[in-house]
Amino acid sequence: MSETAPMDIAEDVLAPLSRPGRRYFALLAFLSAGTLWMLACWMYQVKMGMGVTGLNRSVGWATYITNFVFWVGIAHSGTLISAILHLVRSRWRVAVARSAEAMTVFAVMTAGLFPLIHLGRVWVMYFILPYPSERQLWPNFMSPLVWDVVAISTYLTVSSLFWFVGMLPDLAAARDRFRSPGRRDAVRAKVYGLLSLGWTGSGSQWRHHGRGYLFFAALATPLVVSVHSVVSWDFAMSLLPGWHTTIFAPYFVAGAIHSGLAMVLTLLIPLRRLLKLGRVITIEHFEAVAQTMLVTTMIVAFAYVIEPFMAWYSGDRVEQQFAAWRATGPLGWLYWLLWACNVAVPLLFLVRRFRRSIGALLAVSVFVNLGMWAERFVIIVGATSHDFLPHTWLGYAPTWVELSITGGAFCFFLLWFTLFTRVAPTVCISDVKEDRHEGPERYHELEPTGASVPPRAAGEAGVLAVYTEPTPLLEALARARQAGVERMETYSPVRLRQAEALLGRGVSPVRRWTLAGALAGCAGGFALAIGTGLVNNLVVGAKQAVSVIPYCVIAFEGTILLGTLATFAGLLFHARLARPPLAMPPGYDGRFSRDRYGLFAACSPARAQEVRQLLAPNAEGVHDVA
């Protein structure tokens, strides 16, 4: 991996935030036109009715549901790279995680459109929401369709918060960049100042941020598995041949990660070139994504093999004839296309030369995206058009309305992603810097030494020293502790675990907020579902009016949702973020968010000279703060 100076990393990542050129605005215009065309076609469908689609009395689910499942799958890679790989301490995630997180949020937004589009009468969507009404009509929480609503809304909320919290240090870096001489931009500095919630990079903020981010990752990891499992149960809970199988949950999760990783390559390869991020996003990062895709390729291939095997092994003649029809009937060409695109083509990554070729990486990723969309189409349209009764076997072909909305959805997704690349840092600056400075050691928590030193109080006077490297700061911190300085604070562009240990600060109390929120979410989920069951008092699918097992899905989503919201609230409270007027502490240097390190020591005027001497060795500057 090529080395880049710390300031160069910040400059490389923040440079695209400057005013873009004409080609960028031309691209925005094209994507905006495609999005507006999608909305126009949707309004036309609302006005004319669902008859403008290719849906019929046999094929009730088709292109729109295919798009829904496809975009939910695309959303999974962001959580995989950010959350799961953070927990397993994988180093290659740092350069691609931010863009993958953004991709997750925008893909979930795109996926959320299609249940509304498929609904036809979009104005009755509120029927699915659990709220008191005179009609006493409550959602049926034993329905997989209701599980979908809960799971997708939870996933969007958690992914958005996870993405935003990870961006706080980089938004502060953007704020300080537009406040610096030669780059002053009052409007942008104000906007980034509001978005960064008053982040200063103090040691206490980093301590709570690190722990909060860890809990976000811990909560998001089971969520990423649950969401696409719930989506798969839309099909597996039915009795249609080709759908009623227990392999669907792991099959859908593996396919989601497979398509999501492919989309990461599809987006990041052009992004790396257009934004000139070659020194930050390297070929090694792309190779790691390709190697991960080899794992998902094997899982998807296993699922493709096991499906016809289980149809044969079951002895069910309906399942056997459906498996044969799917491979040889009108959809047979799509069935074999998905084998080629999702299994055969990605196996090229077994050869190192293809894993390190930008052209090969991009081509394979595009083929996988195509193949995964075809897979969802075959699953959905195949089962609905060829069920138990031969007299209901009807064909299906999407109309121009469905194709226009499908193409417009890609424009909608790319429009948001294109806007993101110019308004927010596309790479996590602090993670890249910390990884290059400390490597695997960045994950090691250090035990506090000595009594805890309180952080700086608002407006407190003392001495502030500025350093170009963390080592002299740590040495000065140790000297100040030995001299009995009672209140200190550090400022840095990365988390300094050694400083936290020297200051005697233990584990952040944010964890208590997480536990309380998770317990409240679990209890609230069961209470909502059981209360609804008692109001409806319906026996559905041979289940009693109150059936605890299906309600576990609602309780699980509630656990994750409120646990995440509570973690965010605890982070804001303990890190003293989002407190008006979001003013920086006296003496704050805007370079602390990018390439400088600061050490503040509170002291009386009588002791200021002594403290200056303690902090001065190897410091770039030392000055009093009133």
Q: pLDDT under 50 segments (min length 5)?
A: 1-7
Order of strands side by side in the largest beta sheet? Answer: 2-3-1-4
How widely separated are the two ends?
44 Å
Average pLDDT, to the nearest integer? 89
Largest sheet: 4 strands, antiparallel
Q: H/E element string? A: HHHHHHHHHHHHHHHHEHEHHHEHE
The Cα radius of gyration reads: 27 Å
The number of helices is 21
Query: What structural class is derived from the secondary structure elements?
Result: mainly alpha
Strand content: under 5%
Number of β-strand runs? 4
Descriptive overview:
The protein is mainly α and 626 residues long. Among the domains are: 241-387; 445-507 and 585-625, Alpha-Beta Plaits (2-Layer Sandwich); 510-574, no CATH class. The chain is 63% helix and 3% strand. Strands 2-3-1-4 form a four-stranded antiparallel sheet, covered by helices on one side. It is elongated. The two termini are 44 Å apart. The relative contact order is 0.15.
List the helices and strands and how they pair.
Layout: H1 6-14, H2 22-48, H3 63-74, H4 76-87, H5 97-119, H6 144-177, H7 186-195, H8 203-236, H9 248-274, H10 283-314, H11 317-328, H12 332-344, H13 352-355, H14 358-385, H15 400-423, H16 429-438, E1 462-467, H17 470-482, E2 488-491, H18 497-502, H19 510-536, H20 548-574, E3 597-602, H21 608-615, E4 621-625
Antiparallel strand pairs: 1-3, 1-4, 2-3
Helix pairs in contact: 2-15, 3-5, 3-9, 3-14, 4-5, 4-8, 4-9, 5-6, 5-15, 6-7, 6-8, 6-20, 8-9, 8-20, 9-10, 9-14, 10-11, 11-12, 12-14, 19-20
